[in-house]
Automatic annotation (TrEMBL):
Record protein name field: Precorrin-2/cobalt-factor-2 C20-methyltransferase
Organism: Methylobacterium goesingense
Keywords recorded for this protein, A-Z: Cobalamin biosynthesis, Methyltransferase, S-adenosyl-L-methionine, Transferase
Key word Protein transport present: no
CDD domains, A to Z: Precorrin_2_C20_MT (cd11645)
Length: 263
């Protein structure tokens, strides 16, 4: 047979080489900041099609990424399961017991997901905001990315949702934006705040008194805006200087809007 000539269909069928079994794809699905309307069309498509869905949650809690999906996804016990953190805030993240327990948790979770992926089933990990922005998804991605195809679906970040709902642009002109975990020591926060034009302080929780003191020492407390549960039920936006207490839930942040060039 000349090269380029096609085999008749019935012969082609008989001579087809059996293909190696294909693996599933690991999807990190950005679920946005809370309001389900901020889900992307691509996220929706993956949620509708993936045969296995997982989400992270604290013991005895539902998991925020799954709650965001409630508006678009009925509970399907056969198709989805939670990955329950052994610890969240009970121990310091650098405590050896915390490090060991979390490493074992991520190893075990990635082994379970590898079983699905190896059997050809796509797995979607529901991730709050954007999966590649302080996301737990990244710990599974790191363990699985060299063995299986991966697709990350970007999401609207929590900070983007928060400054949108606060009605405050975050950067103008040449403003430099610094994202700071509130878990940093007081002195580091002050130093970074003094060196930036705009800032987002995440992971507030019990660190709010330290953040308030650091903003005051850096001379920028007046401009700071506190946002709790941005775009979610129970959203609250208030100038930090007017917030009478230092109580802050996990889903809260402080925004320091820039004041750069405004022709
Ligand atoms: C581990 S980080 C995850 C960030 C997420 N991947 C994202 O793209 O926004 C969790 C922190 O994000 C902040 N956060 C995320 N979504 C938020 C929201 N809707 N409202 C307030 N804070 C939020 C809080 O500071 C929280 O402690």
């Amino acid at each position: 047979m000349e090269s380029g000539e096609r085999l008749p269909p019935e012969v082609a069928e008989q001579t087809e080489v059996p293909r190696a079994a294909t693996t599933g794809t690991l999807f990190g699905v950005g679920m946005g900041p809370g309001e389900p309307d901020y889900l992307t069309m691509r996220a929706m498509r993956v949620l509708e099609r993936a045969p296995v869905l997982v989400h992270f949650c604290k013991k005895g809690r539902r998991g925020n990424a799954r709650t965001i999906a409630d508006a678009v996804l009925a509970a399907e016990p056969g198709r989805e399961y939670p990955l329950v953190y052994p610890y969240t805030t009970e121990l310091h993240p650098e405590h050896p017991d915390y490090v060991a327990a979390l490493a074992a948790f991520y190893d075990d979770a990635s082994a379970r997901l590898a079983d699905h992926l190896g059997a050809g089933r796509d797995v979607a990990i529901l991730s709050e905001g954007d999966p590649f922005f302080y996301g737990s998804f990244m710990h599974l991605w790191r363990r699985l990315k060299d063995r299986f195809p991966v697709e990350v679906v970007p999401g609207v970040t929590g900070m983007s949702g928060c400054w949108t709902r606060a009605g405050t642009p975050i950067t103008w002109g040449d403003d430099v934006l610094t994202v700071l975990p509130a878990t940093l020591p007081h002195a580091a926060l002050v130093e970074r705040l003094r060196a930036t034009d705009a800032a987002v302080l995440m992971k507030l929780g019990r660190h709010l008194p330290k953040v308030r003191a650091a903003l005051a020492e850096a001379g920028v407390l007046e401009r700071a805006v506190y946002v709790e549960r941005g775009t979610m039920a129970g959203e609250r936006v208030i100038a930090l200087k007017d917030k009478p207490d230092d109580v802050a839930p996990y889903f809260s942040m402080v925004l320091l809007p820039g004041e750069g060039r405004r022709p």
